[in-house]
Structures are given as C-alpha cells and as structure tokens.
Amino acid sequence: MSQSADRRATYEDLYGIPDNMTGEIIGGKLIVTPRPSRKHGYTASSLDSLLIHPFQFGEGGGPGGWIFIVEPEIAFDEDILVPDIAGWKKERFPVEEGHNWISAAPDWVCEVLSPNTAGTDKTAKMPVYARSGVPHLWLVDPMARTLDVFTLVEGKWVVAGLYEGNDKVRAEPFGAVEIDLGLLWLEQG
C-alpha cells in the first residue's frame, strides 16, 4: 500500500488493507506485510501455549498473573504495532477500552522473525518498544531456530541471553519455568 510522502498514516488507513495482510503504523508510515507462514505461526502458537499455562493460568507450579494476546494491536503514541505475542502483568492490563487497540505498553513482547518482517521487527519496532518502556523483548527465528532475549536497561536493549536449537531455557521474565526450545520448531518431512 502506498501513501503520499507528506501524509502521516492514521488508524483509519488500517481499514483499507486486505484481510490477508497485517497493517501497522510506524513513524507515520503504513507498513503492510503478508500473514505469517506456517513455520512462523507454529512457533508463535507453540510459545504462546507454553507460556499461557504456567504464567496466565498458574498451572504446573507456574506463578500466574499474566495476560497474553497473540497479534494484538497496541498503540505506542502515534505508532500502532502488532507484535506476534504480547504479555502484560494482570494488574496493568486495560480490560475495557473504547477502541480496538490496547493503550498500555506490554511488559513483554515477542517478535517471531520471518524474511518479510525481520528488518522491520529489528530496526523499526525494537526502538519503539524501547522508547515506550517495554522491559522485555524476545526475538524468535524459526528458520535459524534461535531465541534472542533482551532486557531494557536505561532505555537501551541489552542482550540477556542467546539460545538455539533444542536448548532448555529459563529466560526473563519467565525464568520460573523451563522452556524446551525444541518444541517451537515445525519439523520438516
């Protein structure tokens, strides 16, 4: 989708994108990307499932107290971002709002990288998350089978852990439960 170089995108511009695309507004520009691939979707839904049970519902000895949403629209000032998964501590989550987007910055975001989105996720969205004070960010790459964990320190992203393959991970803010990364990868054949 194109727009005039001097016109800033608005929320209403999101209504004009095709149903099979995802729209975001970053730095005043409308960014439209195709829906995720099956590997991307499998990784995102698997990670969401692994986190929901202990951290949202408190099952299996997990602490509970979180709310997770897959592909939420979140307003960061004039930017509208759609992370693959976002999590809020329950007491910070706005249950009712008069619009579709969520106005509270999450406590954790996860971007599942794909060839179509990796550049935007790293160079455009990470700075918005940092500027908005999101304390934890995960980048998961299903092709490379990696997890990069970042913590926000004095407004800058600091690497808190780098993992790959079938590593068993205890990563902030979810260190209370071990995650088997091997469960995130859609196997070939």
Notable characteristics:
189 residues; alpha+beta; tt1808, chain A; 6-stranded mixed β-sheet; two-stranded antiparallel sheet
Report on the architecture of this protein.
This protein starts with 20 loop residues before the first strand and ends in a 9-residue tail after the last strand. A hairpin with a 2-residue loop joins strand 1 and strand 2 (29-34). The chain is an alpha+beta fold and 189 residues long. The chain is 17% helix and 32% strand. It has a single domain (37-184), classed as tt1808, chain A.
Catalogue the unreliable spans: none
CATH superfamily: tt1808, chain A
Largest sheet: 6 strands, mixed
- Sheet with the most strands: spatial strand order: 3-6-7-8-9-10
Examine the secondary-structure arrangement and name the CATH architecture: Alpha-Beta Complex
How many structural domains are formed by the residues? Answer: 1
Content of β-strand:
25-35%
CA-CA gap between termini? 36 Å
Total count of strands? 12
Shape: globular
Top CATH class: Alpha Beta
Supply Rg.
Answer: 16 Å
Structural class: alpha+beta
**Assembly annotation:** single chain
Kindly report the CATH topology: tt1808, chain A
Percent range for helical residues?
10-25%
Order of helices and strands: EEHEEEEEHEEEEE
